[in-house]
Structures are given as C-alpha cells and as structure tokens.
Amino acid sequence: MAATATATDTNLSNLKTAVAGLDQISENEKSGFINLVSRYLSGEAQHVEWSKIQTPTDEVVVPYDTLAPTPAGATEIKNLLDKLVVLKLNGGLGTTMGCTGPKSVIEVRDGLTFLDLIVKQIENLNSKYGSNVPLLLMNSFNTHDDTQKIVEKYQNHNIEIHTFNQSQYPRLVADDFLPLPSKGNTGKDGWYPPGHGDVFPSLSNSGKLDALLSQVDPRAQFFLYLDRLLFIMTSIIDIVLFSLLFIQGKEYVFVANSDNLGAIVDLKILNHLVAHKNEYCMEVTPKTLADVKGGTLISYEGRVQLLEIAQVPDEHVGEFKSIEKFKIFNTNNLWVNLSAIKRLVEADALKMEIIPNPKEVDGVKVLQLETAAGAAIRFFDKAIGINVPRSRFLPVKATSDLLLVQSDLYTLEDGSVIRNTARANPENPSIELGPEFKKVSNFLSRFKSIPSIVELDSLKVAGDVWFGAGVILKGKVSIVAKSGVKLEIPDGAVIANKEINGPEDL
After folding, report:
1. pTM to 2 decimals?
2. Number of C-beta neighbours around residue 330 at 10 A
3. Is residue 345 part of a domain?
4. Which CATH number do you get for residue 475?
C-alpha cells in the first residue's frame, strides 16, 4: 500500500510540474485538470451497493402527465420564459457522419441545420411572447472557430446568442501519466474536451454564469438615466428599488445536446420547477431494447442518483439492461438552477464520477478523464426526474437517424420536428444502413428522395443500393445487394414485407 501511495504521489508531482509549463491553457484549466487526475489516482469512486438501490417514487421521477398545465396568459408565459436560458452542448464534430466542422451545422431537414432549427425555435418564443430567452453554445476547442463564424448569420434575428468554450485538457500518456503536449505533441491530438460534466465549471469560469444571474432588461438603462435626472425629487432608496424591478436575472438553464431534435423548451416542465423550487431536473423516458445501456435514475441513500452501466457489478449487468426493472433512461435534457450551480461550483462540490476513456494517438496509448453532466444530479437540492414522452428524445447520431427525421414520419413547425399523426405505431421503425450510407454525402447521393416510411416497422439496407423517387416502404423490409451487384429501386416502387437481394426480387 505504501509503495502504491508513493508512486501515486510521484506521478502527481511530476504531472503538476509538467502541467505548469503548458501555456496553451488557463490557470483554471490547469487546476481543474490536476484536481480531476488527483481524484482518479486516489482511486476515488462512487461504489454502489446493489442491495441499497431503490426504484424512485413518482415524487422523485414525476410522470409528465401529472404536471400542472402551463399558465394560459401571455404575461405569465413571458414571465416564465424570462427566467430561462437555453444551453446547447456544441463541442462535437460531425466526423462519424463524414462531415467536417461542428456537428450542429449538418443539414437535417429542408436545408436547415441543427443550429438553424434551434434558433428558429427560440426566436419563435421570443417573438410570440415578447420574452428574451438567450441561446448559449458550449463549444470545444474543436468547434469554437467555426461556430463563431456561423453564428454571425443570426445577428439580425430576435435572439441573443452567446458562446463559451469548455475546458481544454491534455491527454495523459498511459505509461507515465505525463501530459502528451509536454512530450512534443502540441497539436489538437494532444488535447481533449473533458465531457459535458465540464459545463458547470466552464459556465462559471467563462463569466457567463454571473452575467446571466445579473442580467438587466435593456429598459432599465432608460429608467436609470431618468432616475439621475430626478434624483433631487426621489430618495436614493426609491431609485434603487425602482431600478431593481427591471433586473431580470435568469434562474434556470435548459441544457441539451445540439443533435437532439426533441429537446425543445417545455413550459410545463419549467413551470413545475419554478413552482416547486427544484434545483435540478433530468428528463428521462421509457427504455426500449435500443436503450438498454443508457443511464437510469435510482433512489440511493435518500437521494436521487444516476446509475451508469460502468458502475454496475458484472453479476448485475443483465439486470441493469432489463427494461422490466429499470424502465427509464437519461435523455441528457437537463434543467438546472443557475444560483445552485454557482453555489456548488464555488464550493468545489461537483465531484461527478470519473469516466476513463482510453485512446491511441500516433501509436501512443493515452487516457482522457471525463465527467457527465447527468451525474451531478445527486449534489443538488430537491433534484427530480421527469418521465417525459419519447418525442423529447430524437437524437441524430448516424445517417439512419437522419433518414427518420428527413422522412414523412416528421414535419417541421416553427423549427420543431413534429411527428406525423398518421403513424399508428408509437415507436419509430428500426433502421440499419450499411457502410455505403455512413457518410452524409454518400447517404444523400443514394436517395433521389427519402422513401415514405409511415407504415415501416424495420429496414435493413446494405451493399450498392440506390433509391429512386417516391419509393414507399412498409412492414419489414430487407434490401441487401449481392456482392458486385448494383441494385436500383425504381421510382414509385412499393415494397412491403419483402427481402430483396437482386433485381430479380423487385
């Protein structure tokens, strides 16, 4: 034990010396990184005793349909919205879909990108209710420069857009726990963004948190000027009280992944949190067989907590994946009280579970340590989950998801993707596309138009397959072209419950 402790101390001492010499990052980033590595080297872990896990009650994970209706009056809705800021996690690149630059600028539907749709949604709320809901984008060093250029096109829109960067941490060389950049790899490959759990300290370090908490309505500037003119007739105390009427500090931030098209502002949820003074809310939704690895909410030692598969003992993994016992999973749509974030960050109390992520860079084995924002739930007071409809979880992680949202299964309304009521099955069809469709450019080139899939149950496509215009797919369809065969689905084809391997099967 003593030898292990000595080795740990030596590693940490050498690391601190090396990190001190990294002038590419701020002092806040250096101390945050050292703190994270120290916790990891100490073996700190959140051990879950399986016998203590309890299923959350409806008071802890609130059913969506039990929430009070949204206030009907426009003034009440405006007052609610003026408490809110929307924050989208915008640090991811579109490389897995064959794109360069931020994933949020991939065209999703009707020529509009993720970011276009997000802006439309918020702008519509601001215009409809006269509110001022700002949009924050948390970028990484990978997406910052491109995003700064992209948001310029929204300058004349009815929306304030602010950007800030999450932390930039050095990758650790697995052999000696020294930062990769200190060994000469100072390019982008030497660094990493440490997961979306970093949103809370980065929001604070950027100065955005304090700015949001003290945001002043522009009208206040006029009245402050008027006060100066009338100071002889009015007491200073009256002036201050009068001015404070126009200070509209934000209270809640709605955090979501930029690629989740279902993550739109929900006034019922916001109204519930304000009324019950909940500091944190995680949206969860019923688990399907496609979501068995997703984190779930549990009651544990009197608090609500996120349980991830990595924390589950091997002998209980099968139980964890069961949709009978653990019926919900985390959508990563999070609502958090801004004052609570400030309190906990300043107290250095947000010690979320560390996720070690091994990688390889130029043949060197490295480690990046990350945290997840959902794991912060156990540190907040009156934290709850809300069991929301599946429609609030519509991520686009691959071209198979893109096919869904570009099809007649959805329509667009004020920037929101709305499900087609003609679809009888409450679940979306399962879609599996082969490697020929992995990149967005290849995917788009292989469809003259996206097929109709309102009556589709499942689709498997692989090989050199090309779709004509106006194709209709129903039931269970498998289209797998034989090796060396170019398979063209003709315009207007209707394929129902069929397996196709060559032109002769059409």
Report:
1. 0.91
2. 25
3. no
4. 2.160.10.10
